[in-house]
Structures are given as structure tokens and as C-alpha cells.
């Protein structure tokens, strides 16, 4: 019995010794990057470097290409040989003279018709009635027509002349008097000087008119006129009711390097967009801010009231320097009615007559000025980007009579 107990004890001792040896062989390894056990950091290994001398693992060590590899420099990047350049608009001076032939062709009915009537052998009452009718059909207006006819009748009676050149000279003088040569037709596009050391602010030009008159196109062409005069410009796309209007205006601006302030949302508040455009113009210290407004039909009172709101909100930055009304010269008397309604909502300071090359009714220049007591400042003479010209009375009348 004692022998069995001794054997069992020996077996137990051997088993315990084996477990201890096995435990020493399979001691778990410390994970890479884990903290050392207490007291381990202070010890020194008999071989190899100290633990604090080993390189620390970096992010992305397992990646095929380390993330901190050298980046490409500018010299390594292929750049285009030539960056796209902005357009340089044609000079403004002499545009109306340059386009005189086009204007003369379209309005020859007025000038040639009057000269033909005045050159008749007999200037009786029926002839003078035809002269009057020709002027009225050209949308000169009743009062200006009466004044022109009365002045011509008196001069012809006193001088008793029938020479074409003398008649042409008299007609030229009377038409110039009706158009007006002593009217200030300059645009208020000069940046305002600051006061008391404060920075100045840009001139603000609002452009209004009904849809279809070429209003947005006129704003883009006017930007080209100002850029040609070396002015810095900001465009405000406050026509938020037509999705294409803002895009169209931005395209005009891009062509001459002019920024456009617009809303990312269709139907946004036009007054807010106009306000932001002027604000950016002040911050960028530009010369002029051009604000394109939505086309208003003259019989929609609510929309006309909104146009007045746009002007009031913009004037929080300061007075609006110009309010230009765009009219289609081919609409005749309807254009005059539109002008009257717009003048009741905002103070019109100038008229832009578009499509003047497409009508024989050049007399609308006289008629609209007389009805609004506001000068024609710009005229559109074609579809080209530089076919917007400052209005010059002498060049206009000479084109009519050429």
C-alpha cells in the first residue's frame, strides 16, 4: 500500500514540473506597440538596442506605397500652353459712326421720305399734311411733329428755296432741335469718393424693362462698354424669375472677366440678390455695379411694386445713380406707354433703345424723350456683342438723312 502511494506522488511531481516548463515555453508575446509591463522599461536587454531606441511604427507601414512619399511639384504638373483669355471689347468712341450705314439703311424711310416731299415743285397744304403724317408714322409724337412742320413751313416761305441741299440743311437743323443737342447723355458710372477717410462706393446702375426688349442682353453689352473704358464691374442677376436670365448674364460676364452675383435658387428674392451684388461691389472696391431686374409687364401692379422694392433695398447702401429703361424701338407707341408706367414706379434717368436698326420709326427717339423728359443715352444697333453705342444726336440725324 505504501508502495502505491509513493508511485502516485512521484507521478504528480513529474506532471507539475512538466506544466511549469510548458508554461515557460508558451508565455504570451506582447502585442506590437502595447505598453511595457511595470518594471520592464527600466531593465536592459543583454543584446540589441534599448526599447526606446527602436523605430516607432508609422501609419501606413503595411501599404504598398507610404503616404508620406514626395508629392509632385508644380514643375511635374502638365499645364496648358495658353490659358483662355477674356475678350477685349471694341473701343466705345465712334461706335455710332462705325454703324452709321446700318442705321441709315433701316431709317431711310423717314429721312428720304421727308426730303422727297420737301423737294416737290409745289409745297401746298396737302404736301405739308404728308410731311406731318410721315413724322407721326415714325413715332416722333404729336407735339414735336407740329413744331417741326411749323418751323419748316415758315423757313421755306421766308427763303422761298427748293434746293435739295438747302432743304436738307433746314431739315437737319429742325430734327437736331427736336432730338436735343444740349442734353446731358453721360452715364453716371464714376465711383464715389469716400468721406472722412472712409472708402468710397461704386456707382449703381439698375436696368429695367419688360421681357422681350433685350434687357439682359443690354446689361451684358453695357458691361462690355464699361470694361472697354477700363472700369471694374460687378453684375447682379436680380431677374430670379427666369432661370435662363442669370445664366445668360453670367455668360456675358465671363466673356470679359466680370463676376456675377446670383442666387442658387430659382424664384429667390430679387431685392436680396441686388443688395448682395452692391455689397460685393463695395467689398471689392469696383467702379460700377450693374443690376439686371426681372421683366415687368406694365399691367401687373404687384410686379411693378416689387420693382420699387428692389430699388429701395439697394438704396440702403446709398442712392442708385442710374435707372435705365430698355425699350424696343420697333414697338412704337406701345413702348411709349410702357415707359410712362415705369416712370411712375422708379425715377428713370435714361433710355436705352434696342433694335433701332430694325425699324423705320427712328422718330421714337424724339417721342420717348418728350414724353418722359428723359434723354436717350444708349442705342442698340444690331446683335453683335459691341453693337451698343452711346447715343450721339448729330450722328443719328446724319444717318437718317444720308
Helix and strand succession? HHHHHHHEHEHEHEHEHEHEEH
Give the helix proportion (percent range).
40-55%
Instruction: Record the strand order, biggest sheet.
Output: 3-2-4-1-5-6-7-8
Strand content: 5-15%
Structural category is alpha/beta
Distance between the termini: 148 Å
CATH superfamily heading of the domain at 203-392: P-loop containing nucleotide triphosphate hydrolases
> In DSSP terms, counting alpha (H) and pi (I) runs of 4 or more, how many helices?
14
Biggest sheet architecture: 8 strands, mixed
From the alpha-carbon coordinates, what is the Rg to the nearest angstrom? 41 Å
What is the second-level CATH architecture of the domain at 203-392? 3-Layer(aba) Sandwich
Globally, the shape reads elongated
The low-pLDDT segments are: 21-77
Q: Residue-averaged pLDDT, rounded?
A: 78
Structural write-up:
- Helix 12 (333-345) packs parallel to helix 13.
- Among the domains are: 95-179, SRP54, nucleotide-binding domain (Four Helix Bundle (Hemerythrin (Met), subunit A)), CATH 1.20.120.140; 203-392, Rossmann fold (3-Layer(aba) Sandwich), CATH 3.40.50.
- The chain starts with a helix and ends with a helix.
- Helices cover 45% and strands 10% of the residues.
- It has 14 helices and eight strands.
- The relative contact order is 0.14.
- With 402 residues, the chain is an alpha/beta fold.
- It has helices at residues 2-25, 95-98, 100-106, 108-118, 125-137, 142-159, 164-179, 215-228, 243-255, 270-284, 301-314, 333-345, 364-372, 393-401, and strands at residues 203-208, 233-238, 260-261, 288-293, 322-328, 350-354, 376-380, 388-390.
- It has an eight-stranded mixed beta sheet, sandwiched between helices.
- The model is unreliable at 21-77 (pLDDT under 50).
- Strand 2, helix 9 (243-255) and strand 3 form a beta-alpha-beta unit.
- The chain is elongated and about 165 Å long.
